[in-house]
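Notes, Module 5: Reading structure tokens.

Key idea: the token line is not a picture. It is a compressed description, and you learn to read it the same way you learned to read a sequence, by spotting repeated patterns. We will look at two proteins. The first is printed below with its tokens.
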Amino acid sequence: MKSKQQWMCMTVAAAGMFMMAACGENAGNAENSKDSAAISADSAVHAPAAPVTTPPVDATTQDSTNKGGFTEVGVIGEVTNGKDGFMATLTNDKGVVYSTVFSIMKLEKNYKKLKAGDRVQVSGDTMQLGDKTHIVVKQFTQQ
């Protein structure tokens, strides 16, 4: 049984992943375009800044997000149902445990409830929080 603090951390992490996913889908709307136009007009008054280079981030020490095509195969462990989908642990063959989010909104027609013991291949975006990797599943296949 999970402690109250662990449940709270999982809930906060899931909410953050859903918010990031929602923000990514709305990035191109007209309201955001107006804001960037206003920022661009304001920054035109100032002298151009030197190009900024970002050093590589060590995912083990900082929180980070990867919107690349991350894929992993493993066995579903504990499943926590929610109103818009479910969260589940996924353990790969090497024993690495991931927290996964299966969202009805993200998976649409491909959404399917899974149970503990199901073997799946998941693909999606990842978010690194401390030493835990969270996967927002965009597609999966049951094996």
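Here is the second protein, with the sequence above and the tokens below, as before.
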Amino acid sequence: MITGSVLQENDYGYLTDRLNQAVRYLEEHDLSALEDGTYVIDGEDIYMMLQSFRVEAPIDAAYETHRKYIDIQYVLEGELELLIGNRSRFIPAGEYNTEQDVQFYEPRENDAHVILQEGEMAILFPEDAHKMICFPKTSETVRIRKAVVKVRV
């Protein structure tokens, strides 16, 4: 896992070419002008899903990993909380779905807790089991908008 901000003047030269291309895409494009949906960046090697949702009740999603793609979770609006741990410490919940490139896992506790603010990202590798959580702090609806960039391994 790597966390950081695309708003900073960083040199991401240490990333693979595909990861670097994906991060640069986030940095160089006005994603707020785009509607939710899937956008091709570089064929099947890199694509992006823009997603918006409103949270009224707590979200505690299932842990998941991906074998074919690295996830870049990038926050456009709101705050995104992730729990992350090494997949070797998890018990699979069902079979790996090859079509959707996802393996779900049984719940567990005591993993890394990462809070991403607007303009921040987390790069999640195939060994990083991760899940989104959201516990609204007030009775108001929380709006979250994020980009999930999928980068082929």
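Summary for the second protein:
- Confidence is low (pLDDT under 50) at residues 5-9.
- The radius of gyration is 15 Å.
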